[in-house]
Specification:
mainly alpha
Length: about 170
Amino acid sequence: MSNALYIPVKESIEQLRSELKKSTPMIQPRIKMLIAMKKQGNLGISKRELSSSIGVCGQSIHKWRTLYKAKGLSGLISHGRLGFKPTSFTKSQHAKIEAKLKDSSNGLRGYKELQEWVIKEFKKEIKYNTLLKYSIKNFGSKVKVARKSHVKKDDVAVATFKKTSVKSVSKPQK
């Protein structure tokens, strides 16, 4: 069994509980660890006991305790994830892409062609996957869309074709 390690917790249990209520589900186990360490007092508590009581991996407990020793509660609460990433396109570019995607006569055959159009139109190099995810999220576009007819179909030729009728293909009876 691993030895109990005593790390003094500076905050009171009331402070930790109020912080626990405000925190996100990702941060809550970290604060629960501090509460368990504070309840144990000067005796200390082993990593295994903490991991079993909180329900997380022992390696996580080790990382969190080291982080708390080095940076305190503020370091333990900040998770280091960036959050919202700004969009790659301006509002005018967004509107132009939306118009291009919604135009039924544009003849875009896929996201690769849309990517080439964005490079040509905006002089901006965008990764394929970025454009794919952006289009799906913002415009509800799909990778494959069935079309009723070809976009470059000549309406006059269709009307002429429908007017001409083939009489009987089979041989006439004698």
